[in-house]
Amino acid sequence: MDEFNRALLAHTTSGHWPHGVEAAIDVTLLGRFYERFSDHTVEIGHQVIFMETGKRDTT
Fold this sequence. Notes:
mainly alpha
């Protein structure tokens, strides 16, 4: 997700973005929100593993 967000930002700030500034801002913010959502789901997964096994997931 981090790589996707970086690529999205690079694309919207390049000279090849034909949709205007407002759309670029919206798409960039949407990418950021998806990245944060992904971070939260990973944390929830770690907590579920801990609740089930009593061990901390170090990956």
